[in-house]
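Board notes (copied after class):
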Amino acid sequence: MRNLNVVDIMCTRILSKTTALIFLISVSCSGGKSYEESNQSIIIDLAKSFDSRNVRKVNLSEIADSVTFVPFETTRESIIGDRHFVSFSSDFIFASSKIFDWNGRFYGDFVTRGHGPFEDATFGALVYNDSNFYAWGSKFIEFDMIGKPTGKEVSLKTDSNYDFFREVRMYPIYGGYFICFHFNALKADVVHIIDKDFNLIYSKKVIHQTDDGLHVHGVRNFTRVTYYNDMAIFYNGVNDTIFQITETGFEPRWIVNFDHPLRLIYKLDESEHEEVLHTPQVPLILITDFSRYISTNGKHSVNAVYETGARIFFFMSIFRFDMSRKRTTYEPYIVFFDKNTGTITRVEGDGFIDDMLELGLDYISQFDIFNEKMIMRMWPFEILEHIENCMERGIRVNPQLLELSKKIKPEDNPVLILVHLKQ
């Protein structure tokens, strides 16, 4: 394996104001094609979300056409705790170390806690890639389809060749590669691309560390990698570009215009500014400099980007900084870009109005998006209590919920709610 020296790959300036104008003219003359068909690197004018004419209430039924309720199978081996990390692949759903299929059937729990061979005492999560499962935590461990270790194992704590992989989060790139992000705030955040043998393909800085020894704070709640049609998507919060990540590098897919006075501006050193302006980078804020936090009050930022066949969803936040408590809170909201019409819509309120699920929710705002589905989770006892309350008050109950209630018990595993998006 090669030494893990960071190779900082520079990208050229993606779009100047002049070329942006030419680009927009070429898009407007694309002969009626959808925005995606006209050109992959389309400008998404996110700044229009601040225009009140683009802010409106949106029913869930406007973007979705059906709902499926999938209870996770509950057995002695498959019990999920109250706090669990959930992720998805095209074939499986991972709830920490528990594996389920998309019908909710329990598939297995492959990771043994411990310090022996093919055990991990500080297990992080599982991913699936190219007919194998991979655990990451204090180790990288490969398992076959029935949960048997293949013999590939790397200790991230004791193998000096893997120093840069300590405290990482792993995402699969379909075809046998992985993206690994480093999350130690005292080091420069780096993205590594590795193969199935845990060999480094390349490394890339994605956050720059200050040089004066001050404690630094990255965008820790930012969802960096999402998926669209098996493509790994990365949003760069500095140069406002949506990249596709491949085993060979970052490829610009969409250009985002977020030029607005209320946009959160990360303050970078002048020497760093040009370096990070047009590369896939996420900035830092100095936690000891509260004037910077005060300046973020009331400003807007992008927390996550999800692409689907018809739309691109931006999960946004308004920063609220309380100087007396020296604490920042966030007010979330949702913006989506229609890939067929090129229009921007900011969803008024806290989320989509629930006119489909009938779960007693005012808004639908907390969800993931994967493979053309909005995905939520609820505990069975919450669903059963809602049904009971509706019946006591004479309120109509969704027939799907009534049918679901016959299959679940209050103490069961969570129910996966799949909202199928319109194409």
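Comment from the instructor: The chain has seven helices and 30 strands. The first helix runs from residue 17 to 28.
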